[in-house]
Design a protein that fits this description.
This protein is 37% helix and 17% strand. The protein is α/β, with parallel strands linked by helices. The longest helix has 20 residues. The relative contact order is 0.11.
Length: 361
C-alpha cells in the first residue's frame, strides 16, 4: 500500500492526507471472466476491496461472470453469447475480449483520465503499458504467477528451451520492466522473478477478507457427509497439473476413516481419476462454491488439504483462508507454506509422505 501511495503522489500510508487519497481514481484491469470461484478472481476481488476503501476504483473486465456485492463500479465489455468458459486457460475469444477491453479503457481514459492503471494478469499489464504511452499514467502490475508457469499445463508450452518459452520470457521481461510497480502474490514468486530476470518486485500477501473468513463462521447444513468419518476439505482449482489430480491417486493408500470433500472446478478430470483408482465413494465433488459461502463449507472439515507443489511460482492463497478459519492443514513442506501456517501446518515432503502423515492423524 505504501508503494501505491507514492505512485499516487501522496505520503506513506501512516502519514498520508486521507482527503487527498480519496480523490484518486484507479482503473483496475482484469483480463478474465470475473467473477468465478477461483483463486485468481479472489485476489482481484480482495485488491479491489482494499484499494476502494480510500480510492474510487473502477474494474474493467470481460462481459462474462457474476458481480459480487463488494464491487461498487464495474465496466464489462461485450460478451459473446456462445462463449461460456470461466475456467483458466487460453482461447481465441479471450484475444478479442482483450482488444475490446483496451478500446473501452482508451475511450474512458479520453473522457476522464485515471490517476493509475492497476492491472491483473500479464495481458492486463500489457494493456496498461500501452495505455501508459497515450495517457502518461503509472501502471501497477499485480502478478499472480510466472507466464511460462501459468501456461505449462497447456499445449502452448513444450520444453524449457523451446522458441515459445523464450518468446514468453522476453514478453514477461518487457511487462515487468515497463510496469512502474510490480506486486507479486508470494515470497516464492518474488524470488523466482529475481532469479530469472534480476528484477525487484514487492510481495503483497493474499490475506482474505476478515468479514467473510474468520473463526466465528458456522459450518453449513446444506450438504450431507458421513458422520463416522474424518472430513478433509479442499477448495481450489481442479485443472490437470494443479496437484489434486495426482493426490487422488494416493487416496487408496490412505486410511478409510478419512473422507474427502473437494470443492472447485472443473471437476471432470479429477472425477475420472477418482473413478479410475476406485475412490469415488470416498470423495464428494461439489463443483464451484460461491466465494461468500465457502467459509461455511470449509468449516465442515476436521482437516484441510493443499497438495500444490508451487513449481510455477503461483501463490498458495488458499492457505491464508484455511489459517483464518483455524483449520489444521496437510500440505507440502516449503518455507513459504511454513511461514503462512506455522503450527497449523502438517508438513509432508511429497505425496508418499502425506499418506504416512494421515496414518498419524
Amino acid at each position: 500500500m505504501d508503494s501505491i501511495c507514492k505512485l499516487l503522489g501522496v505520503k506513506d500510508a501512516v502519514e498520508m492526507d486521507l482527503k487527498k487519497l480519496e480523490e484518486k481514481s484507479i482503473y483496475m484491469i482484469a483480463t478474465t471472466p470475473f467473477f468465478s470461484e477461483r483463486g485468481c478472481h479472489v485476489r482481484v476481488l480482495d485488491s479491489y476491496v482494499r484499494l476502494s476503501e480510500k480510492n474510487k476504483v473502477t474494474l474493467f473486465t470481460y462481459g462474462l461472470g457474476r458481480t459480487p456485492k463488494l464491487i461498487r463500479s464495474i465496466v464489462r465489455v461485450y460478451n459473446f453469447p456462445w462463449y461460456r468458459k470461466t475456467s483458466p486457460g487460453p482461447s481465441v475469444e479471450k484475444m478479442f475480449y482483450n482488444v475490446f477491453l483496451f478500446f473501452s479503457l482508451f475511450i474512458r481514459s479520453l473522457q476522464k483520465r485515471p490517476d493509475m492503471y492497476y492491472c491483473h494478469l500479464h495481458e492486463g499489464a500489457f494493456i496498461g503499458i500501452v495505455l501508459k504511452l497515450f495517457f502518461r499514467r503509472n501502471v501497477v502490475f499485480n502478478n499472480q504467477g510466472l507466464l511460462v508457469g501459468e501456461l505449462s499445463s497447456t499445449t502452448l508450452v513444450k520444453g524449457k528451451k523451446s522458441f515459445m518459452v523464450k518468446l514468453l520470457m522476453h514478453l514477461e521481461r518487457f511487462i515487468l520492466v515497463h510496469s512502474d510497480l510490480n506486486i507479486v502474490s508470494s515470497e516464492g514468486l518474488k524470488q523466482k522473478i529475481w532469479k530469472l530476470y534480476k528484477i525487484k518486485v514487492k510481495a503483497e500477501l493474499d490475506f482474505p477478507n476478515p468479514k467473510i473468513f474468520n473463526p466465528k463462521v458456522k459450518p453449513t447444513n446444506r450438504i450431507k457427509l458421513p458422520k463416522s468419518k474424518k472430513i478433509v476439505v479442499y477448495l481450489g482449482g481442479l485443472r490437470k497439473g494443479k496437484g489434486m489430480d495426482e493426490f487422488i491417486t494416493f487416496i487408496p493408500r490412505i486410511d478409510k476413516r478419512f473422507f474427502f470433500l473437494i470443492m472447485g472446478f472443473p471437476v471432470e478430470y479429477c472425477k475420472e481419476v477418482a473413478e479410475k483408482v476406485g475412490v469415488l465413494e470416498r470423495v464428494k465433488f461439489t463443483g464451484p462454491i460461491k466465494y461468500e459461502e465457502s467459509p461455511a463449507f470449509l468449516k465442515l472439515g476436521d482437516y484441510a488439504l493443499s497438495p500444490k507443489m508451487l513449481e510455477s511460482g503461483e501463490a498458495n492463497g488458499k492457505l491464508y483462508t484455511y489459517r483464518e478459519l483455524g483449520l489444521k492443514t496437510v500440505c507440502i513442506d516449503t518455507k513459504e507454506n511454513r511461514s503462512i501456517l506455522g503450527k497449523l501446518g502438517i508438513y509432508a515432503k511429497d505425496y508418499n509422505d502425506m499418506v504416512k502423515l494421515f496414518e498419524k492423524l
